[in-house]
Design goal:
202 residues; alpha/beta; Rossmann fold; seven-stranded mixed beta sheet; 6 helices; globular; binds S-adenosylmethionine; rRNA (guanine-N7-)-methyltransferase activity; SAM-dependent_MTases_sf
């Protein structure tokens, strides 16, 4: 995939994403940001997948990404927000110090409106987010438990999920009440992007 072939993004965003892919490829041999076999598919499997969450960008406020790893979706969505929602700020929570150092470098080099918390999510004071996202971090019931303390009233949680999404929703309903819209994924016909609102203990 070339620098300009992501759907629905400006030239500036495409260039930022291209520079981000270069950074991931440069750092990956030393800190394993993505599986080595996935590097060839970085643009399709990780970046384009994460970029779908830009559909949920509010115009301003606070977006919190939990367990960001190499920056999916946090860095990718923050790159898309740079010219679409410049007043939206991001916080990426990642407990692995080396990954957090990479994320700080990416934020600086791409000039993103984002900050890193290099801490465990459970140890972070409530962040008052309008949107909480997390990818490949935990099953849905655990994600709701991790995300809910950081959500402002009326906020939403956005979780990309694989083919087990329906099972995870059913399991989560044993503990939680919530509204859920399961959006189709453009990058994987079996995946879903779950939009969770009005979550509370069941
Ligand atoms: C499987 S990786 C997924 C990374 C990224 N979201 C992605 O989709 O590629 C999970 C990441 O969450 C981080 N993590 C796991 N538990 C965490 C916690 N309790 N607090 C903060 N970070 C955590 C790990 O260090 C790891 O980088």
């Amino acid at each position: 995939m070339s620098a300009t072939s992501y759907p629905d993004v400006s030239r500036e965003t495409a260039e930022r994403l291209h520079r981000y892919a270069e950074l991931v490829r440069k750092w990956n041999p030393s800190i394993n940001l993505v599986a080595k076999r996935d590097l060839e598919l970085l643009e399709t499997r990780h970046i384009a997948d994460s970029l779908q969450l830009a559909a949920f960008l509010p115009s301003r406020g606070h977006w919190v990404d939990l367990g960001s790893g190499g920056g999916f979706p946090g860095i990718v969505v923050a790159a898309a927000a740079r010219d679409r929602s410049p007043e939206l700020r991001f916080t990426l929570v990642e407990s692995d110090a080396r990954k957090a150092a990479f994320l700080a470098t990416a934020i600086r080099e791409l000039d993103l409106n984002a900050a890193i918390l290099a801490r465990r999510i459970e140890a972070v004071d409530p962040l008052g987010a309008d949107i909480v996202s997390a990818r490949a971090l935990a099953p849905l019931d655990r994600l709701i438990a991790l995300g809910l303390p950081h959500l402002a009233p009326g906020g939403r949680m956005i979780f990309p999920k694989g083919r087990r999404a329906e099972d995870e929703i059913r399991d989560a309903r044993a503990q939680w009440k919530f509204d859920c819209v399961a959006h189709k994924s453009d990058t994987d016909p079996e995946a879903r992007i779950l939009e969770i609102s009005r979550a509370e203990h069941g």
